[in-house]
Design a protein that fits this description.
alpha+beta; 2 helices; 24% strand; binds zinc ion
Length: 66
Amino acid sequence: MIKWLNNILSKELFTRKPKIRCIICFLPATHDLTICSREFNTNNEKEITITICSGCNDEIYERYNS
Ligand SMILES: [Zn+2]
C-alpha cells in the first residue's frame, strides 16, 4: 500500500500544479493524510503526508479502519 501511494505521490510532485489536488482522483484536496509504517523486526518507521479530497478520505477510512 505504501509503495502504491509513493508512486502516486511522486507523479503528483512532478506535475507541480499550483492548486493542491487529491493525489488519488485529482479533485481539489481538503485533507492531509499522514501514513506511518513500522517494520515488525526493526521498528524502523517511515512517515509520509498526502493530500486527498473528502471522498477519498472517507473511502480510505472505510477500507482500512476495520
Ligand atoms: Zn480524491
